[in-house]
Amino acid sequence: MAFRNADVSWFLHSVAGSQPPRLSQMDPIISALFFLLHVAAADCTGGPLVDVIIDRYDIPRVCPREVQTEDFIRYHFNGSLFADGKKFDSSHDRGKAFISQVGLGRLITGMDRGLQGMCVNERRRITVPPHLAFGSIGAGGIIPADAVLVYDVLLLDIWNAEDKVQSRTISKPETCTRTTAPSDFLRYHYNGTLLSGETFDSSHSSNKTYDAYLGQGDLIPGMDEGLVGMCVGERRIIIVPPFLAYGENGYGTTVPPQATLVFEVLLVDVFNPKDDLIVEVKEVPEGCTRRTVAGDYIRYHYNGTFQDGVAFDSSYQRNSTYNTYIGMGYVIRGMDKALQGLCMGEKRRITVPPHLAYGEEGVGELIPGSAVLVFDIHVIDFHNPNDAVEIKVTHKPQECNVISEADDLIQYCYNCSLMDGTLLYSSDQFNSPSTTTLGGNKVIQGLEEGLSGMCVGEKREVVVPPHWGHGENGAAGVPKSAVLLFELELVELQKGVPEGYMFVWLGDGPDPLFPAMDLNGDKEVPLEEFSSFIMIQVKEGKGRLRPGLDSDGIIKDMFDNQDLNKDGRIIEDELKPEGDEESEATKRDEL
């Protein structure tokens, strides 16, 4: 019960009298002894009490603030009669703490005095003599005349009308490029407690940040003020007096009326709706001759984090680049923009505000709504679907009379790597040059292009876009859609013959042919004589066998094609079949 004036209140206006000394500079134990000595002196004659008796039986170790005149306080109490211990009132029984102002006569004089110097969470027992309580009249039949009263008090809160929001930084990142300002949108975690330490709310318990605009009325006024000037990653204690919090109404069942609130805040994220991308170039390779444009296809590695450094995704963990077209809407708008103007091998940090990322919705459990995203990217390669094979000659012999072309058999050394320098394959791994016939579809199209037109001893660097290489699917050891760099050296060149031919004349052949083949003039040509004839033509540069195959086998096939009756010898009539079969019999591989 709480009585007042004509309502038989036991909280009467103050009367003249001394107040106990302030204890803000005293040790709690010494302060308690001081009060006890003060009381003893007042009552040393054994007569009635002349002042309050204060027993500070439970004092907190830390007391940043003590009750002073004009302070408002919120406290629990049990009130009992000194004579028989009978309880006459209790805020505990009502389930609601008592709120009043100290030192201005809103309480009985004994309580105005007895509450001075008290700390939050302190427990004290205040014994009040009648003349500082309800005197010879008593109160409403509940408190008898000339009653000594005993109040057992637990202080829960202190504030003053002159109080301001208090903020104190607990920790702060070494670098802080931006601080919060009104109209910014914040994402932060907090623990909210009353001044007594009782928790009333926590974002950590729901594992979800509190998100709000700053200075737009979305928050209580004290938080609108206390959150200004914070850095992402900063921890701050913000103490908000009741009139800048939820005031006399409180908030539901969690925040009582006229409660001072203490917030321990960790700022996770900040952005402004007017923010654009922030691009920080970390590394640019020397000799960058080409930069990405819309329509290019790019492969890059990235680490994705929030502003507080917490990772949400990484291509490195998957050991696979992220591959996409640029400027075509395949990625978030911010990245579509940020991926333009990059060099191969370049490293950048890209900060993307949520309105250029995943917005208010976020992505499931992976990315919260309204999250600023930070990407540290490393460009591996990029190309355009219209790119041709790029050939750069790094060394060319002074004499270059014969160059490689289709059907030639060549030997070459090579290193094949990604554009970031990662070596994929090398002829050095096999201790011998690689061999291929140009035009035989034995190597990827881009390498075929790069090996064409080379002199023996020539060296080249050949850049092969994926549509000239292994395409979107890649190959063993070759990533999907990878641009390849070949370092080539042509070691040996054997001129070839057209596809489907075993032997070609390098000019006009003998006419008539059979007498030239019949080396001994006996009107018949066995295999040995035929072989000798062909090898003479090759040696004298008049004809060419298909390179890369066993010459004896080729000649045997040619002979069998001419030996129509299969008697092991060719005669002139067999060499002149009807129509164009001479050409087919002497030149084409019919196997």
Give the tags.
591 residues; Chitinase A, domain 3; 5 domains; six-stranded antiparallel β-sheet; 15% helix; disordered C terminus; metal ion binding; metal-binding; peptidylprolyl isomerase; PPIase_FKBP_dom
Q: What is the structure about, briefly put?
A:
The protein has helices at 28-42, 91-94, 109-114, 203-206, 221-226, 315-318, 333-338, 445-451, 513-517, 527-539, 551-562, 581-587; strands spanning 53-58, 72-81, 87-90, 98-101, 123-128, 149-159, 166-171, 185-194, 199-202, 210-213, 235-240, 261-271, 278-283, 297-306, 311-314, 322-325, 347-352, 373-383, 390-395, 409-418, 423-426, 434-437, 459-464, 484-494, 503-505, 525-526, 543-545, 569-570. The chain is built from 12 helices and 28 strands.
Question: How would you describe this protein?
Answer:
The structure is a single chain. By secondary structure, the protein is an alpha+beta fold. It folds into 5 domains: 53-159, Chitinase A, domain 3, CATH 3.10.50.40; 166-271, Chitinase A, domain 3, CATH 3.10.50; 278-382, Chitinase A, domain 3 (Roll), CATH 3.10.50.40; 390-494, Chitinase A, domain 3; 503-589, Recoverin, domain 1, CATH 1.10.238. It contains 12 helices and 28 strands. It has helices spanning 28-42, 91-94, 109-114, 203-206, 221-226, 315-318, 333-338, 445-451, 513-517, 527-539, 551-562, 581-587; strands at 53-58, 72-81, 87-90, 98-101, 123-128, 149-159, 166-171, 185-194, 199-202, 210-213, 235-240, 261-271, 278-283, 297-306, 311-314, 322-325, 347-352, 373-383, 390-395, 409-418, 423-426, 434-437, 459-464, 484-494, 503-505, 525-526, 543-545, 569-570. Strands 1, 2, 3, 4, 5 and 6 form a 6-stranded antiparallel sheet that branches. Strands 7, 8, 9, 10, 11 and 12 form a 6-stranded antiparallel sheet that branches. Strands 13, 14, 15, 16, 17 and 18 form a 6-stranded antiparallel sheet that branches. Strand 8 (185-194) and strand 9 (199-202) form a beta hairpin. Helix 10 crosses helix 11. The longest helix has 15 residues, at 28-42. InterPro entries: EF-hand-dom_pair, FKBP-like_isomerase, PPIase_dom_sf, PPIase_FKBP_dom.
